[in-house]
Amino acid sequence: MNRGRRTVLVTGARGFVGAACLPLLAARGFEVVAVTSAEVPADSPGLKWQRCDLLDPATCAALIGTERPTHLLHLAWITTPGTFWSSPANLGWLAAGARLASEFYRSGGGRAVGLGSCAEYAIPDDAPCIEDVTPLGPATVYGKAKAAMHLAIQAAAQAHGKSYAWGRLFFPYGPGEAVGRFIPSVIRGLLARDPVACTHGLQVRDFIFVSDAAAACVALLESDRSAAYNIGSGTGVSLRQVAEALGRTLGGADLVRYGARQPPAFDPPRIIADVGRIGRDTGWAPRVGLEDGLARSVDAQRAGAAATHTQIANPAPGAAR
Amino acid sequence: MNRGRRTVLVTGARGFVGAACLPLLAARGFEVVAVTSAEVPADSPGLKWQRCDLLDPATCAALIGTERPTHLLHLAWITTPGTFWSSPANLGWLAAGARLASEFYRSGGGRAVGLGSCAEYAIPDDAPCIEDVTPLGPATVYGKAKAAMHLAIQAAAQAHGKSYAWGRLFFPYGPGEAVGRFIPSVIRGLLARDPVACTHGLQVRDFIFVSDAAAACVALLESDRSAAYNIGSGTGVSLRQVAEALGRTLGGADLVRYGARQPPAFDPPRIIADVGRIGRDTGWAPRVGLEDGLARSVDAQRAGAAATHTQIANPAPGAAR
Q1: Averaged over B7-35, what is the pLDDT?
Q2: Inter-residue contact A155 to B144 (CB < 8 Å)
Q3: B95 CB contacts (<8 Å, ≥6 apart)?
Q4: Most exposed residue of A80, A154, A183, A231, measured as fewest CB within 10 angstroms of its CB?
Q5: What is the spatial distance between Cα B189 and Cα B303, in angstroms, rounded to a whole number?
Q6: For chain A, which residues lie within 8 Å of any Cβ of chain B, measuring from their own Cβ?
Q7: Cβ <8 Å between B98 and A148
Q8: Given this model, what pLDDT does residue A107 score?
C-alpha cells in the first residue's frame, strides 16, 4: 500500500445518501471506488465505478482483493419502499455485510463506516435517542438486522485490530429522495394540485438534509474513533409541520388529507436524535435548516431531478406518506 | 410436508453439546439429520448424517432444500480452543448462520433454536445474568458475533412469521469435553500425578452438565415461545472448589498450582445464570449435580472416552485452565 494513499470503497453508491457522499469524498482527496448493483455511470477523475452483486461472497472478496481499499463506507442494504421493514432479504444483507467488513480488514483496510438506523433503538416516547444510553430494542426485521450489523462491524474491527464507526441515520430528505416517501409525496401533490393521503401527521421526526447526512458519513470516515453515532439534526418536527411549511411555499395546504391513511405498525410518536457525540468527536454539524432543505427539495422536484434512484440508502420509519 | 413429521437439522452434531443432543432428540421421536464438517459416522435408525460445509451458502441451501427440516438446532460455530474468542472466523459463522436461519424458515421450517453464550452479557460482578434484565455488552469478538446471531435468528423468525429460541449457554462440562479446558485438564493431571498450572482459581462460574445442557436445547426446540433463555445450573462455584472436589475424588489436590498462569483478558469474577425463565417456560431443570457430574467426567476420562472431539460446541469463558 502506498503511504498516504486513501482509497475508499463506497457501497450503495447510487443510493440516496451514497450519491451525496461521492463529491464530498472526492473533495477530501479520496480515490473513490463506487459500487452499485445497478447500471454503472461513466468514471471521472478520482471516481471509478464497479458493478458488483455484494450478496455474492466470491464477487465481493474479489472486488476487495482487486481494489485494496484503505477505507470502507458501507451503505448498501435492502431499501425497497414498503417491503424493507420486514423482508427476509435483510438477513442476506447482514450476511453480506459481515463478510465484507471482515474481508476489508483482512485485506489491509483500516477504517470502516457502516450505516445503521434509528430503528435500532427502543424508541423512547418523550426523549431523544442517545448512543450507549437509550437501550437498543429494534421492533422491526430491518432494525434487528441493522443492530446485528453494528455488532458485526464492531467484531470485525476488534478481530483485526482496526477501527470502525457506525452511523445511526434518522430521517434523511432532500433532492433524490424516493417518490413514495413523505416529503416528495407532499411536494408532488401540491405541485399537481392533487390530494395527498397522509396518516394523522402528528408523528414527530428528526429530519436531516441529505448532504448533511453525507457529510456526517465522511466525517466519521476521517475520524479514528470506534463508536456508534447518531446522524440527525437534533430537532424534531411533526409531519404536519413539514406539510404546512410546504403548503406555505407551494400553496394548497388543504390538499393534504390527514387521517386518510393508517399509520404503519411501527410508528412511534417521537423519534429524535441526540447529536452531541458526533459533534464532539468529529466537529460535524448540520448546515441546512428545514425551510432551506425543503426549498431545495421543491426546486429539485420541479426540475424533475428527484426520484430517479431505484435504491435509497436508508428510508426512515413512518416517513412514507 | 407430512402432517406430524418432525425432522430436525442439527448443525455441529459432532460437537460437545451436539453429540449429547442426538439421543435425546431420537428419544423424543424426531427424525434427525445430523450435520458435521468432520468425518461422518454411520447412520442409524432415525439418524442420518450429512457432511456439509455450512460456510458455503450454496451447499447449505442445497442441504435445506433436500432435507426440508421442520426444526433446526443450530449449534455449529468456531470453537477452536484458544482462538475462538478473537478470531475473524466468527464473522463467517455469523454470515452462515444468518443465511441458514433465513433459508430454513423460507423452506417451510417452523422452529429454530440457536446456541449463544453468557459472553453476550455485560457480566455483572455480583449478580446472576437475567435475560432481558442484565444488559448485553459482549467484550469479545465471539460474544459480539453471538449477540449478532441472536438478532439474526430473531429477525429471520419475524420476517417469516415463525418462532425461535436462543439458548445462552454458560459452562458446559462432562464426558467429551475438550482436553485443553479446565476440568479435563485437572482430571488429567490428577490421574497422571502431574502438576496442573492454573490461574488464581477464584473465578466463580456456572457449570452445567453436558446432558443437562443438551436437554435444555431439546426442551427449547419443543417449546413454541420465542425468546432468549439462559442455560446453566443457576449456581456458581469457584474453579478452586471444582479442583478441590476432584482432589477429594482422585487425590493429589496439591498438584494444582494456582497462580501459575495468567488469567485471560476477559475473565470476570463471577458468571452465574438465572435459570428461572427456561424452567417456567419449558419445565426443564438440571438433573446432574456437580459432584455427580464430576464423577462421570472422571470415569469417562479414565476410560479414555473423553476429548476425542475436534470441535466443541460452546467453550465457555475462563474455563480453559
Answers
A1: 97
A2: yes
A3: A57, A94, A95, A96, A98, A99
A4: A80
A5: 15
A6: 57, 86-88, 90-92, 94-96, 98-99, 101-102, 105-106, 135, 138, 140-141, 144-145, 147-149, 151-152, 154-156, 158-160
A7: yes
A8: 97
Q: Do A98 and B99 make contact, defined as CB atoms within 8 angstroms?
A: no
Residue of chain A whose Cα is closest to the Cα of B133 = A135
Question: Over the stretch B288-305, which tens digit does the pLDDT of each residue have?
Answer: 999 999 999 999 999 984
Q: Does pTM top 0.80 for this prediction?
A: yes
3-state SS assignment for residue B298: helix
Domains and CATH numbers, chain B: 7-170+208-231 (3.40.50.720), 175-206+234-273+288-302 (3.90.25.10)
Q: Which residues make Cβ contacts (< 8 Å) with residue B245, sequence separation at least 6?
A: B290, B291, B294
Q: Which residues contact A58 (CB under 8 A, 6 or more apart)?
A: none
Write the CB contacts of A201 (distance below 8 Å, at least 6 apart in sequence). Answer: A238, A239, A240, A243, A256, A258
- Who contacts B140 (Cβ-Cβ below 8 Å, separation ≥6)? A158, B85, B86, B119, B266, B317
Look up the ipTM and state it. Answer: 0.92
- What are the angstrom distances between the C-alpha of A102 and each of A77, B94, B289, B312? 17, 11, 42, 24
In degrees and rounded to multiples of 5, residue B241 shows phi and psi of: -60, -40
> What does A201-251 look like in DSSP terms, one character per residue?
---EE-EEEHHHHHHHHHHHHH----EEEEES-S--EEHHHHHHHHHHHHS
Residues of chain A in contact with residue B159, where contact means CB-CB under 8 angstroms, are 86-88, 90-91, 141
